[in-house]
């Protein structure tokens, strides 16, 4: 079963998360397939840019709690998006939770429709947005992250754009993306690669400095009794015992 759809139009390769049975949760299999597709795009001289989108009403529900990727694999995927020598553009027409927000932050440009919603839900199951902080902390408003990391509150696309998680939000995401994709198609491959390297230098420093510590933190938290109870409660659709 293929979990990543692939199409191409005028040099833009579209990779679609296509695991709607679990709301495009980041399973070990999906992360592996997406990494392979990105590797193919990096090697293909006919690909000018990559669009990362989704099937169904959810871009990604976060980590697959039944088949989670190893933290190292998620770090590698996020770094691969950041270092891909071609722009990666997120196209969101649904909801994004937890680990899915790390994918958005890793992309060079992110666009969403105004009906999309976002939430960092990790704290509610007893873990923390550790690995996904690698691209998020350098690119997103720190005061806003403090609020949404700590509360797990849902916020809309307008707020996501205000805090730097999105580049643009609009009623019609394809209309919003049209001039962006046109600009990428008009740009030289070398110019795009070198300009992207300038833009991502500080993000990559965060990966180099903090990836090992945040990977260890993620593994420790997911193995803890509190996280086990939180994940069990989530899967059973009930409140965990700490809810007041």
Automatic annotation (TrEMBL):
One matching Pfam family: ECH_1
Signal sequence extent: none
Entry-linked SUPFAM superfamilies: ClpP/crotonase
InterPro entries: ClpP/crotonase-like_dom_sf, Enoyl-CoA_hydra/iso, Enoyl-CoA_hydra_C, Enoyl-CoA_Hydratase/Isomerase
NCBIfam families in the record: PRK07827.1
PANTHER family named in the record: ENOYL-COA HYDRATASE, POLYKETIDE BIOSYNTHESIS ENOYL-COA HYDRATASE PKSH-RELATED
Family: Belongs to the enoyl-CoA hydratase/isomerase family.
Protein name, UniProt field: Enoyl-CoA hydratase family protein
Organism of provenance: Streptomyces spinosisporus
Upper taxonomic lineage: Bacteria, Bacillati, Actinomycetota, Actinomycetes, Kitasatosporales
């Amino acid at each position: 079963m293929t979990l990543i759809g692939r199409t191409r139009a005028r040099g833009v390769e579209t990779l679609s998360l296509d695991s709607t049975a679990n709301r495009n949760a980041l399973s070990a299999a999906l992360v592996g397939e997406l990494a392979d597709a990105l590797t193919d795009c990096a090697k293909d001289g006919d690909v000018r840019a990559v669009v990362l989108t989704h099937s169904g009403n959810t871009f990604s529900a976060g980590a697959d709690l039944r088949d989670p990727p190893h933290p190292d694999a998620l770090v590698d995927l996020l770094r691969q998006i950041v270092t891909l020598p071609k722009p990666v553009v997120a196209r969101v027409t649904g909801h994004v939770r937890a680990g899915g927000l790390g994918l958005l932050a890793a992309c060079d440009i992110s666009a969403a429709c105004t009906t999309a919603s976002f939430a960092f839900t990790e704290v509610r199951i007893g873990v923390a947005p550790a690995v996904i902080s690698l691209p998020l902390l350098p690119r997103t408003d720190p005061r806003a992250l403090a609020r949404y990391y700590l509360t797990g509150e849902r916020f809309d696309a307008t707020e996501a754009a205000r805090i730097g998680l999105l580049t643009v939000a609009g009623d019609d995401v394809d209309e919003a993306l049209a001039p962006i994709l046109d600009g990428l198609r008009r740009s030289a491959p070398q110019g795009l690669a070198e300009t992207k390297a300038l833009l991502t230098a500080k993000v990559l420093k965060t990966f180099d400095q903090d990836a090992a510590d945040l990977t260890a933190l993620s593994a420790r938290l997911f193995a803890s009794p509190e996280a086990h109870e939180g994940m069990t409660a989530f899967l059973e659709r009930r409140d965990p015992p700490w809810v007041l």
